[in-house]
Write a structure and sequence with these properties.
The structure is a single chain. It contains ten helices and eight strands. With 316 residues, it is α+β, with helices and mostly antiparallel strands. The strands form two sheets. It has a six-stranded antiparallel β-sheet, covered by helices on one side. Helix 2 (24-40) crosses helix 5. Strand 1 and strand 2 (129-130) form a beta hairpin.
C-alpha cells in the first residue's frame, strides 16, 4: 500500500509540474473554454460555435469569415429591446466571441488551443486547474517506478547499514561487560577473557584493548574481530539500482561486444581503527588458521544477528 501511495504521489507531482508550465495565455484559454461549455453545453468548442466543420484544420480565411458572420448575429444591438438581463447576457456572449476570434486568428494561441482540444482540458478544482485523470504512458510509468524503486533501495541500504553498525557496537559492549564482570575497565592483569554465550551459541575473546573477537569453530578456532568499521554506512551511487541496472544491461550487451564494460566494483576504504594487534598475536593466528575469512565477510549468529567480521591476525 505504501508503494501505491508513493506512485500516486509521483503521478500527482508530474501533473503539478505540468501545471507549473502553463502560461497566462493557457489559463485564459481554460477559462474561456469553461464559459463556452457552460453556455453551449458539453462537447462544444470554439470551432463548433463558429460553425467551422473542418475544426482545427480550418484556414485563417474560413475562421475570419465565420467569425464575422457570428458577430453580426450576436451583436448586442440586436438585443436592445430585450430585458436588462438578456442584454447583459448578450454583451458577455459577444465579448467571449471576440476572444474566441482573437485566439483562432493568432497562430500561436490557436496551436495552444488545438493542443488542449485534442489532449483534454484541465478542470477547475477550487484553487487551480488540474487534470481529473492523468494517464502517463507505459514508458513514463515504468521509468517512474524504476526511480521510486531505486530510491527505496538506496534509502533502505543506508538504513540497514547503519542498523548493522549500531548492532555490532551494542553487541561488543554487552560482550565486554559480561567478560569483564560488569565493569567497563579491563582486567588489571592485562589478560584476555574468553566468554561463551548460550543465547548465540558462540564463543568470544575480549582483549585487554577492548576489541572483541569471535571464535570461528569451523576454522580451527581462528579469531575473527567484530569490527563495525568494516561496514560502509555511506554507500555510494555505484551501490544503487539507479547505477546497477543500466550497468548490468550495458555489460551484458554492448559492453560485452565492444569490450567497454562498465566497472561496477565498489572500493571501500575503512576508517583507521585505533585497535592494533600485537606481533605475537599475528604469529599465532598464521599458524592456527587454515582458511582465511575475507575482510568484511558477513556472518550470522545463532540468534539471527548479522555481523561483519574481519579475520584475526592472531590471538594469545
Amino acid at each position: 500500500m505504501k508503494l501505491v501511495s508513493v506512485v500516486v504521489a509521483f503521478v500527482l507531482l508530474l501533473a503539478t509540474c505540468q501545471a507549473a508550465a502553463w502560461s497566462k495565455e493557457d489559463y485564459e484559454i481554460f477559462k474561456l473554454n469553461d464559459k463556452i461549455v457552460e453556455d453551449l453545453g458539453a462537447g462544444s468548442s470554439f470551432y463548433s460555435w463558429l460553425g467551422l466543420e473542418n475544426g482545427p484544420k480550418s484556414t485563417l480565411q474560413e475562421i475570419t469569415k465565420a467569425y464575422r458572420k457570428k458577430s453580426r448575429l450576436l451583436h448586442p444591438d440586436k438585443f436592445s429591446g430585450k430585458s436588462r438581463s438578456a442584454q447583459k447576457h448578450a454583451e458577455e456572449r459577444f465579448q467571449r466571441l471576440s476572444l474566441v476570434g482573437n485566439i483562432l486568428r493568432d497562430q500561436s494561441l490557436k496551436k495552444r488551443y488545438d493542443y488542449f482540444l485534442s489532449k483534454g482540458f484541465p478542470k477547475w478544482k477550487g484553487t487551480g486547474y488540474f487534470y481529473t485523470k492523468f494517464r502517463p504512458g507505459l514508458i513514463l510509468t515504468a521509468f517512474g517506478l524504476y526511480l521510486l524503486i531505486s530510491a527505496f533501495q538506496f534509502i533502505s541500504l543506508r538504513i540497514n547499514r547503519k542498523q548493522d553498525y549500531k548492532r555490532i557496537l551494542q553487541m561488543k559492549e554487552v560482550i565486554k561487560s559480561q567478560a569483564w564482570g560488569g565493569s567497563i575497565i579491563p582486567p588489571a592483569d592485562g589478560s584476555d577473557r574468553k566468554l561463551y554465550q548460550e543465547e548465540t551459541g558462540k564463543s568470544f575473546v575480549v582483549k585487554v584493548d577492548g576489541s572483541v573477537w569471535i571464535v570461528d569453530s569451523e576454522n580451527n578456532d581462528a579469531l575473527v574481530e567484530l569490527d563495525e568499521s568494516e561496514i560502509n554506512v555511506n554507500p555510494g551511487f555505484k551501490e544503487s539500482y539507479l547505477f546497477k541496472f543500466p550497468a548490468y544491461l550495458w555489460n551484458h550487451s554492448i559492453g560485452r561486444i565492444s569490450s567497454l564494460a562498465i566497472d561496477t566494483s565498489v572500493v571501500y576504504h575503512k576508517p583507521d581503527s585505533s585497535n592494533s594487534n600485537s606481533s605475537d598475536t599475528k604469529t599465532e593466528s598464521k599458524t592456527k588458521a587454515k582458511k582465511k575469512v575475507q575482510r568484511g565477510e558477513k556472518k550470522e549468529l545463532a540468534n539471527g544477528t548479522v555481523v561483519y567480521a574481519r579475520p584475526s591476525k592472531g590471538r594469545k
